User: Fold this.
Amino acid sequence: MILVSSCLAGLKVRYTHSLDHKLSKLIEENKAIPVCPELLGGFSTPREPAEIIGGNGEDVLDGKAKVVEKSGRDVTELYIKGAYSTLKKAKAVNATVVVLKEYSPSCGNSMIYNGEFMGEKITGNGVTTALLKRNGLRVISEEQLAEYYDEII
Assistant:
């Protein structure tokens, strides 16, 4: 089974969706299940943009960085809650791979925004990606999907 960011499946769980037709088809064929760590963490849609300040997802899990909304509200605990809920779901469905949305403070797999809300990106994982990887799950982004598609299907 494959877990897929709900926004990549075309579900309106963010301020916009990022439909990927290959992933949407996998869901229709019951080979993938959509998941949104932010909704699992307790956020609603739409929600304010958030970025990691002071590090990356690993640093958030270690208590060295935080996730903050553009208005300044600290939402770290909701991101951590969503990450653990996603991990629980991945284990429950025996997920072999998780495809998450790049650049997200939750789902970013190699790049995230730098915490200044200026559109600048840095190398790093989001909170959910960091937790999933710590627990041995394979995580790729939608930008890596073409490279690994045949392998994961």
User: Anything to note?
Assistant: The two ends are 9 Å apart (CA to CA). The first strand starts at residue 2 and ends at 5. The helical segments are 21-28, 37-41, 57-61, 76-92, 127-134, 145-152. The first helix runs from residue 21 to 28.
